[in-house]
Amino acid sequence: MTAPAPDTSTPPLSPAAAVAAARPGRVRPRRLRGTAALRRSVSEVRLHPADLVLPMFVKEGLEEPAPIASMPGVVQHTRDSLRRAAAEAAAAGISAVNLFGVPLTRDAVGSGATDPDGVLNRAIADVRAEVGDALVIQADLCLDEFTDHGHCGVLTADGRVDNDATLERYAEMALVQAEAGAHMVAPSGMMDGQVGVIRDVLDAAGRDDVAVLAYAAKFASVLYGPFRDAVESTLEGDRRTYQMDPANRREALREIALDIEEGADLVMVKPAGAFLDVLAEVAAVSTVPVAAYQVSGEYAMVEAAAAQGWLDRRRAITESVLGIRRAGADQVLTYWAVELAHWLREEWR
Ligand code: PBG
Prior knowledge:
The chain is built from twelve helices and ten strands. The chain starts with 14 loop residues before the first helix and ends with a helix. It is an alpha/beta fold. The protein has helices at 15-22, 36-41, 79-91, 119-131, 163-180, 194-204, 225-230, 250-261, 276-285, 296-307, 313-327, 337-348, and strands at residues 52-59, 66-67, 75-77, 96-102, 136-141, 184-187, 211-218, 266-270, 290-293, 331-333. 39% of the residues lie in helices and 14% in strands. The protein has one domain (47-348): Aldolase class I (TIM Barrel). Ligand PBG is lined by residues 140, 142, 144, 152, 188, 224, 227, 239, 295-296.
């Protein structure tokens, strides 16, 4: 006869006994969440108006600011309304404005981009005259708003984007933007070598004072959709031969390293919200300040949900920007910059 198997089943544990056994009493992270003052005293990231940069659109020949359907609350500015809005941005305490121009006529090489009287260059001069050095004036340096085909560069005879011919146009654009009064030029076209060429041409012209904000890791994202309405883009197809594949994180680090080597003063990750892992890695290794662009589609999604009553608008905006800062961005480009800056000031009072 064999002996009965020993009883290995554990006796049932009462909920009270389970709690007693786990003894959570000593270590209680909730202790620091008990009041607003406690929470505030230990928050790891704080938002400040100085973190924020406002992207702005100005359209040639407008009489009145024109709303952008897919970006409720954002407008295409007239020359005058742009100046007023820039002054308000300065008063709100944000750091910078990033200017995009919408011309009335376009051609194959984007001539309007290098015309000192073109819409963007006049806007740069207008804003500089209005706010002086109170804001950093960043100029979008790209051809897509100015070309009739809508690509960020000039095309070869067989319709591909010609990298090195485009760099020549970017170099000309940098000089005109510097002359117009930009403190910083922001090449956003993802051409290879764009930062180095721009740095060299500015330096040779004695404009080593003008900084380069490099769109270093810019992904070919669906989230630019509303922006294309804002600038009345004529693009057919996509930008996948020059912007990055959204699948690639390692490649982002390569782009960042190249741009820093070429002399970028800041590097950017774009879009922000869907690429926070990339942003965090970039922030961990970058030797220069890191910007992140909360793009038009990120804006539109929150506005649409809030308009339906599906999200608390103010909390959604605040949390989304906080997340971008927490991931490591030093500056956040966001269409909510001025409104958010006002909320932050309200909260200090
Ligand atoms: C290109 C440019 C784009 C954006 C900024 N610069 C559009 C694109 O690459 O197609 C998008 C910004 C946004 O979506 O808010 N000059």
